[in-house]
Amino acid sequence: MLKISNLHTGYGETEVIRGLDLNAAPGQVLAILGRNGAGKTTILKAIMGLLPVSQGSIFLGDEDITEQAPFDIARKGIAYVPETRDIFPSLTVQENLELATRVPPHKKREWTIERVLDFFPRLGERLQNGGNQLSGGEQQMLAIARALLMNPRLLALDEPTEGLAPIIVQQIHDKLLELKNEGMTMVLVEQNFGFATSLADNICIIGRSTLAWEGSPDEILGRKDIQAQWLGV
Ligand SMILES: Nc1ncnc2c1ncn2[C@@H]1O[C@H](COP(=O)(O)OP(=O)(O)OP(=O)(O)O)[C@@H](O)[C@H]1O
Ligand SMILES: [Mg+2]
Q: How many helices (H) and strands (E) does the chain have?
């Protein structure tokens, strides 16, 4: 579904990622782990066309999406939930959702506002709240709901649990698990090791600007040495 080959990307002259290969198979959850500043967000931004790619390629299915415009990449089926969540603070929850439905979907519309409100009932109770009148958990739910309204083939999530209370983290976990069970392909950037290992099919650790380790959640759980070297857990 997503194939990244020999990716080089970064900011200006500074290459943050060098020679990265990553793959996410259809229906699988790929978790990207790594210390602060390792380059996890940078990878997602390059996938979304938000950063220049100096070498290498990014394919979505058969299609080369390397350095396409972010809007085109979104329309082709990758929905991005950024670390900053990017809720419009002066718009209501309803308006935030309606904006997301303006993007013409690349395939038959499976996710409607009605369906996302069914999926996140909490948002239904907050429809007239401003984006700036939501808890962190509600903001994250709104950000995911908005991404689903793009009817994605692949959902790219940047630290969805950051700053959230454990009970909310559990709720987000259960929702992402539901999506996974429905066959949604996901690329999940996380610092929460337990969250990532319980959802993912594959774990990729970014270190020294590239892929430092790759394996299954079961393998990494047994590799305290790798955890200590690359994650500091
Ligand atoms: N806009 C920018 N301009 C220049 N350098 C940047 C910019 N954004 C990030 N960097 C640098 O790129 C490197 C990787 O940053 P990135 O945000 O991808 O890390 P990360 O793995 O997502 O970290 P975190 O877990 O803290 O979110 C860091 O050294 C960072 O300082
Ligand atoms: Mg980041």
A: 10, 10
What are 163-217's pLDDT values in tens digits? 999 999 999 999 999 999 999 999 999 999 999 999 999 999 999 999 999 999 9
pTM > 0.70: yes or no: yes
**Rounded (5°) CA angle 5-160-9:** 25
Q: Is the CB of 231 under 6 A from ligand 1?
A: no
* Other residues' Cβ atoms within 10 Å of the Cβ of residue 51: 19
pLDDT tens string 135-177: 999 999 999 999 999 999 999 999 999 999 999 999 999 999 9
Nearest-CA neighbor of 5 among 18, 152, 16, 13?
Answer: 18
For ligand 1, atom 27, which residue shows the shortest CA distance?
A: 36
User: Separation of 128 CA from ligand 2 center, angstroms?
Assistant: 31
The span from the CA of 65 to the CA of 202, in Å, is 23
What class has domain 24-52+69-77+154-233?
A: alpha beta
Of all ligands present, the nearest one to the C-alpha of 33 is 1
User: Average pLDDT for residues 45-54, to the nearest whole number?
Assistant: 97
**Distance between CA atoms of 76 and 71, rounded to whole angstroms?**
9
3-class SS at 139? Answer: helix
- Give residue limits of the domains in the chain: 24-52+69-77+154-233, 88-152
